[in-house]
Amino acid sequence: MKTSMIFSKLVSFVLILQLHNPTVVLSSSSSLSSSNGLTEIPKKFLDFAKRKEVVDWMVRIRRKIHENPELGYEEFETSKLIRLELDKLGIPYKYPVSVTGIVGFVGTGEPPFVAIRADMDALPIQETVDWEHKSKNPGKMHACGHDAHVSMVLGAAKILKQHLQELKGTVVLVFQPAEEGGGGAKKMLDAGVLDNVDAIFGLHVVHNAPIGTVASKPGPLLAGSGLFDAVISGKGGHAAIPQHSIDPILAASNIVVSLQHLVSREADPLDSQVVTVAKFQGGGAFNVIPDSVTIGGTFRAFSKASLIQLKKRIEEVIKGQAAVQRCSATVDFYNTKKPMLFFPPTVNDKDLHEHFLKVAGDMLGNDKVKDMKPVMGSEDFAFYQEAFPGYFFFIGMQDENSPKLSSVHNPNFTINEDVLPYGAALHASLATTYLLEAESKLRPTEGNLHDEL
User: Fold this and answer.
1) How far apart are CA 363 and CA 384, in angstroms?
2) What angle, 0 to 180 degrees and rounded to 10, lies between the N-to-C axes of helices 146-162 and 76-89?
3) 238 has binding-site annotation
4) What is the 3-state secondary structure (H, E, C) of 397-451?
5) According to the annotation, is 207 in a ligand binding site?
6) Residue 180 counted as an annotated binding residue
7) Mean of the per-residue pLDDT values of the chain
8) pLDDT digits (tens, 9 = 90+) for 140-174
9) φ and ψ at 196, to 5 degrees?
10) Are 313 and 262 in contact (CB under 8 A)?
11) pTM (2 d.p.)
């Protein structure tokens, strides 16, 4: 009897609390339900991605793309294959976007919109890996894993299509051209097809991290970068009578040395920067001073302000040092054939980092989610992050029982295809849980509206 009275009073108290503040009760119960569901989704999606028929499907797509590598803004066959697979999945898309790009849509077709991105282009490298699906296009190779990236986003699309009931918004599938120096991400943004996107996720395979692990960090992850070409002009002549010439090789040599001082003597030691001269072309004979010398290289930093300062000083040093040696110089931060864009730093959103840690930890285990140091490489994914919050991470593919994999941009580069289901499931999980969390933030408002009715 006493227990019954206590229970009755408890029920009365809960009812009174709900009448006076229904939002609190609704929000609390929704939050618990949502939290449990969010935790289960990553493992469920990974189990689905590891099904033999799904893995075989992703592997087939990846190998077909690998056999037919195409350079930036030339990915017509790659784009055709992607559209064919999207058609089979019943996923609508926009095409063409920025020459060869595709933007697909999975979900309600309504806000919020969250994007996952794959780059499609290959590199001008002759493949030396001798295997059944070796590149059929001489001098071109998928040596950076973009074939795997495309397969993973298509794999994520398949997962999402099979779990439409989980989607409380729209996942935008971004297949972009020309990541390798062509600034495809910027052109996708300029096309206006991503104007409504709230957040974007991207990944890159990495050869020297174990399979089933991921790594990233909040804030600056990859450096911003720029490229430069300079022509130093003098007056050619016979090497035996240099006084009758104006030697551009001597001037260019002084320029190369002086450029190194921009980092060692002008940059803050705590602000990591790089200036590298990687091209030096001039002369063709042992006894002839040439009329001109061409040099070129790259400059990198983790802040846009530092990049702008480096760009300014590189031009000043080249022209100033050329003048000291009686030469003239022209400096270009572009190429006449295709734009060499000023790539901003890749800066991960801090809130999305927390989201990534939760989702990846639920899927792989917290011990498989690693913190990484910033890297001086650059990524045009950074253009998306300038437009809206974005998050970029690396996914390992080294099997400890297999020979060590070669690094990217290498003619011996290979993909451990066991990584495909991990990438697909992470893409799908990050996007789905992002939408669910966005929806849960709106639930208290819905509770208030219901209370007013």
Assistant:
1) 26
2) 10
3) no
4) EECCCCCCCCCCCCCCCCCCHHHHHHHHHHHHHHHHHHHHHHHHHHHHHHHHHHH
5) no
6) yes
7) 90
8) 999 999 999 999 999 999 999 999 999 999 999 99
9) -95, 5
10) yes
11) 0.86
